[in-house]
Write the C-alpha cells for this entry.
Amino acid sequence: MKNVVIIYWSGTGNTENMATGVMEGVKSEGANVKLISVQEAKVDDVLKADAVALGCPSMGSEQLEESEMEPFIESISDAIEGKDTALFGSYGWGNGEWMTDWQERMESYGARVIEDGLIVNNEPDEEGIEKCKDLGKLLAKV
Ligand SMILES: Cc1cc2nc3c(=O)[nH]c(=O)nc-3n(C[C@H](O)[C@H](O)[C@H](O)COP(=O)(O)O)c2cc1C
C-alpha cells in the first residue's frame, strides 16, 4: 500500500484546513497517510514515504515561512529527489508568486511535482476543500 506523508506549516489554520482536505483525499483512495506539522517533521519522514504533500502559505513577501518551513525545505533537497510531490498553500493579497517559485525550486531538487501547486485565497471554502481532496486522491494514485 502506498505511504503518503503530508507536512505543513500554518499560522492561522487556513493551510492546516487544506492539509486535512488533502489527507481525506488520500484516505479515500485507500493509501496510508501521515499528517504532520513541520515542527515535528524529519527528513526521514520524506525518505520513508512513496509520495509527499507539502503545504505552506505565502509569508514574508511572497516567501515560505522562514523559521521552520524554509529550513525544512532546504533540508529535504536530496531526500525529495524522484518523489511524487504535491504542493499547496493559502495566500492573502498576492498573485501566487511564492507558489510558482516554490514549485520551480522543488523541481530543481528533482521532485516529481504531480501538478501545479494548489493555491487558495485565505480560508478554503467548500470548493477549495474539494480541490484539496482531489489533489490528495491524485497523489495517492500516481
Ligand atoms: C507575516 C505575513 C506575511 C504575509 N505575506 C503574504 C504575501 O506576501 N502574499 C500573500 O498573498 N499573502 C501574504 N500573507 C497572507 C497569508 O498568506 C494568508 O493570511 C494565509 O491565509 C495564511 O495561511 P495560514 O492560515 O495557513 O497561516 C502574509 C501573512 C502574514 C501573517
Remarks:
- The first helix runs from residue 14 to 28.
